[in-house]
Amino acid sequence: MKRIALIGMPNAGKSTLFNRMSGANAKIANWPGVTVDLLSAKLLLAGDMAELVDLPGIYDLHGFSDDEQVVRHFLCNNTIDLVLIVANATQIDRQLSLALQLKSLGLPAVLLLNMADEAKTLGITINTQQLGDELGYPTILLSAKYGQGYSDAYQLIETALKSSQPIGILSLEKDFAVDQQIENKLDTIIRHSVDVPIQTTHSITEKIDKVMLHPWLGLPLFFAIMYLMFEAVYTIGAPLQDSVAWLLEGFRDLVLVPLFSFLPPLLNSFLLEGVFDGVATVASFVPIVIVFFLFMAIIEDSGYLSRAAFLMDAMMTRLGLDGRSFVMLLMGFGCNVPALMGTRTMRSRGLRLLTMLVIPFSLCSARLQVFVFMTTALFAPSQAPLVLFSLYLMTFAVVILTALLFKGQFNSQEPFALELPPYRFPTYRQMILRGWHEISHFLHRATKFITIGVILVWIVTNMPYGVEPASSASWSGWIGEFLSPILSPAGINPELTVALIFGFVAKEIVIGALAVIYGLEGTSLMEGIAQQIDWVQAYSFMLFTLIYTPCLATIATLRAEAKSAWYTALSLAWPLTLAWCVSTGFYQAARYFGY
Amino acid sequence: MTQKQPLSSLVPGQTATVQALHADPGFQFRLNALGFRIGKHIKVIRTAPFNGPLHLKLGNTEVMLRQQDADNIEVLM
Does residue A139 sit in helix, strand or coil? Predict the structure, then answer.
């Protein structure tokens, strides 16, 4: 099978092209081996099956940050039939250098000048024929996002693939004294074939930046945007959650209850009150998560994250972190795992470890589900978004505290430069794909962690055989009672304690576990919990859920990325200690003041 | 003025030409790839509050760079 690799500078649109070429139905698999950052898909190209590999962005072949190492390692350990060099056409004056480096290695390649739409708007004209001839690679303009020029590019790739000779294992230990030569050639080619108007401006971007990066307004605007986003997620998501919960409840009462009524009572309870109630309660929160990710998709695609890095860098530096750490925290609001992997762009190990230590405090979408559930159960609809927002602010408070305490251990003096791309907007197709991705992500987790988690919860609440479920005679009762001296000062009762224990596997399980433990589901579960605990206990429980030990997938990623047992132990023990202190402190203080 | 000065001494709105880059090799390659090359024009668009990074424009690329790293780039106005 032929192997094709996508190579280009970060943010040149490699993954957009990858998705367009492989299609939504192509199998996208994690690459086994050094890293999960290589994505590959199989597709039919020029009559043969070919494997298309999406690589992390690389600035130049000397690159030695961890993400760039992935590319170097790939190039040095695989035979490649064809390289698709993806470059941003509007920045061809600098991005062409990577193509020249690849050329000097003798790689067979095609140069795809992406973002043709933006180049056109800016009045940049590129003579692709001339450029391709001088460079020695077939060259074409296209827009991977909107599709202009795509079919021509596709044909060009097919033709190139038919005639290309695979190149064996490369050595990148090459002497790059040829760099000066490359630089001269770059200037010559650009002079001959690229025409840039003297005054090019992303005028809309400049106007937006004047407001967004305003010296005084910038930061307040950032927090205002965040607040509005969570308010919107709650306002749009909560009714959706209600309707899904109602549908699932109907399905249970009208279909499952009669269907399972012939089963022995224990099996009936296992299937209905264990598996179904647990999984269905978690599933009802999927719409909220989808709405959340649609907003995240817009923000991530807009280019605003780089602006957040710009605004926050000065403050983050004082914490021993930098602007990228802040962006990773924001990405962590989606899921902590990709945020942890995103730290690969950092070259300094100290900076990377400190950033990875704080990322798990980021209120991820799984914890969002728990908090939406709890706030809906115990707070008025008008207060709920504020309560939710306060927990997001809590993320930052805990991050600041942790960074200040540990920055001495993880020292770094890394210079860094970050691109601020023009503002962009995702296409509807991209947003739908993102939503779909989240649903499949949930289904994947549901079939693994969540189902197993709620089954375990059912077992501990119903065993030994014959006990009243979740009573003090059951295993869960024992566990709850056993840990009660530790957690009752934080106002966390034995039932919630059991839910927290299983939340270690995946935070979504917390709500599923509560459904199983209380033997209730949907609205009745919320009412049941509201009768058992008051808002102070609920908030203390939420603080604990926010801060304590991250989920299993996060721990596994931390371990794999840091490659240090000591560090992994620290990232387990510290959040647990801190969670207890914060929850207990809050609970005792609130009670002291008479709440 | 026709004297070399550090990039960090420019104020927003000013434009200058890169004369020399002093950085560790790894960072120098990164700067090159981002468009910081001798003879290139740089415009300082703004600086972030609290002595934060510079917002720069080189050709069609906009970049943020910290003050301390901008100290190591010599420019000519």
Answer: strand
In a domain, A202, yes or no: no
**What residues in A contact B62, CB-CB < 8 Å?**
419-422
By Cβ distance, the residue of B48, B58, B69 closest to A415 is B69
Cβ separation of A311 and B49 shorter than 8 Å?
Answer: yes
In angstroms, the CA A52 to CA A34 distance is 18
Check which CATH number belongs to the domain holding B57 and give it. Answer: 2.30.30.90
Domain-embedded: residue A266 = yes
* Cis-peptide into A215, omega within 30 deg: no
Q: Are residues A246 and A188 part of one domain?
A: no
Each residue's pLDDT tens digit, A191-248: 888 888 776 565 788 888 888 898 889 889 998 988 888 888 888 888 888 888 889 8
ipTM: 0.94
Cβ–Cβ gap A59/B30 under 8 Å: yes
Same domain, residue pair A305 and A161: no
Domain annotation covers residue A211? no
Task: Please answer whether residues A247 and A287 qualify as being in contact, where contact means their C-beta atoms are separated by less than 8 angstroms.
Answer: no
Co-location of A515 and A462 in the same domain = yes
Read off φ and ψ for residue A29, nearest 5 degrees: -120, 150
Chain A residues whose CB is inside 8 A of the B26 CB are: 62, 64, 347
Closest CA to A344 of A360, A328, A332: A328
Alpha helices in B1-77 (DSSP H): 25-33, 67-70
Count how many domains chain B has: 1
Interface contact A417-B48, CB threshold 8 A: no
How far apart are the C-alpha atoms of A136 and A231, rounded to whole Å? 54
Q: Which domain holds residue A476?
A: 220-409+431-592
